[in-house]
Amino acid sequence: MGTIGKTTTATLFLCLLLFPIVFSTPNDRLVRIGLKKRKIDRNNRMAAHLESKEGKASEAFLRKYRLHGNLGESEDIDIVALKNYMDAQYFGEIGIGTPTQNFTVIFDTGSSNLWVPSSKCYFSIACYFHPKYKSSRSRTYKANGKPADIQYGTGAISGFFSEDHVTVGDLVVKHQEFIETTKESSLTFLIAKFDGILGLGFKEISVGNAVPVWYNMVNQGLVIEPVFSFWLNRNPEDDVGGEVVFGGMDPKHYKGEHTYVPVTQKGYWQFDMGDVLIGDQTTGLCASGCSAIVDSGTSLLTGPTAIIAQVNHAIGATGVVSQECKTVVSEYGETIIDLLLSKDQPLKVCSQVGLCSFDGTRDVSMGIESVVNENAGKASGNVHDAMCSVCEMAVIWVQSQLKQNQTQERILDYVNELCDRLPSPMGESVVDCNSLSSMPSVAFTIGGKILELTPEQYILKVGDGELAQCISGFGALDVPPPRGPLWILGDVFMGKFHTVFDYGNMQIGFAEAA
């Protein structure tokens, strides 16, 4: 008996040690999905900038807002088409099929479909870097075949609908419609750390009118309450990324009471909010009210340019591309002038300073091969691509000034002035990492309460040591009426405030995260 007792004890110890992050407890009947977290990667951000540039930045995003066939009102705005998952930091694991095939997904409150790569995805490189769903290996698979495509801010996916059981934690959602992607036309999905998306928005924005996973959890009686909640861990030193809790909320994830506001328009988790304060000063535009969306699939806080400009001015932020441009001018400006004065071919200048390659007729970027070989650690080629573009612009600007017989000092000043006017493709800005202590807080008026973010909470740090770059957590995005002015409150906001999505009462709750 003693041997059996020791064996049982050892077995129990091993079970506890190896017990997965995804679990539910018999005491509270909550289903918890542990989230993995990764640091924001500099090369991923550069790739996002390049893709955004090709898509004509925010103007293109706004043209792509409309998602045909699901929203009804022609003037309605589809935030899904704006989404850029390049900076996504939080992922969880689900299973599809019987036996389960595991996938890492973003739990995204800003969209409503579930999709993963298909084994029938033959011609998209991205599919070869992620696990693929194989319907032939699942006993519970049911064919559907209806075509589907979704346009995002930095790319698109297309494929077809299928039906199978989906495992979320220890819940098994039966007969769930989802998209098998056969084409992922985006660099984002190639180098992403996630395989797919699990949307937690409303059915009103679901492509193909598919019933969302969350709806089926409720309809099949799998959760004790029609409520789910997010806790995102923003501690950079902690390996625990956070938790999505289905069926309620965990009191250990928040402090005090939640402030609740009603959902004002189904589709996204949208509500009305009031004034935005910088320090204790009003910014004015939202004093009479703005709309806001809580979106776990977005990293930053985006809002009206009129307010973001005030925020960035207060924190001393400058455009990401402006800074890259000034770096090129500072390091290579004099050399570019000298090469042009020595009658070198302008098309060769950027290759001569090492920022571009030369194909015999013109400078070309050096980043294409590195993207395909990202797993080999060569994604830094995207940085060269951006620098090459900046260099080519600088050569044109310098040439125009040399033709006017300007001095070197005047030429460099002029090029720097043009750098200041370059827009950031993703609407993002950088700040001095050493200035956080002098930056003001930024607060949002929600449900009559002031919810405040400190500089440490709204500034994102990319990289380490001397190469570290601090990114403003605020991005500009102008959405016209009737839906705008609109704020999208992403992970920067949700990291500070534990967020409850109360489907039963159609309300959203915020409390300080523990």
TrEMBL record:
Keywords: Aspartyl protease, Disulfide bond, Glycoprotein, Hydrolase, Protease, Signal, Vacuole, Zymogen. It comes from the Eukaryota. Residues 320-360, 384-425 form the Saposin B-type domain. CDD domains: phytepsin. Residues 90-511 form the Peptidase A1 domain. The active site is at residues 108, 295. One of its GO terms (molecular function) is aspartic-type endopeptidase activity. InterPro entries: Aspartic_peptidase_A1, Aspartic_peptidase_AS, PEPTIDASE_A1, Peptidase_aspartic_dom_sf, Phytepsin, SapB_1, SapB_2, Saposin-like. It is found in: Vacuole. Gene3D superfamilies: Acid Proteases, Saposin-like. Disulfide bonds join 121-127. Residues 1-24 form the signal peptide. GO terms for biological process: lipid metabolic process; proteolysis. Transmembrane segments: none annotated. GO terms for cellular component: vacuole. Belongs to the peptidase A1 family. This is Aspartic proteinase. It comes from Gossypium australe.
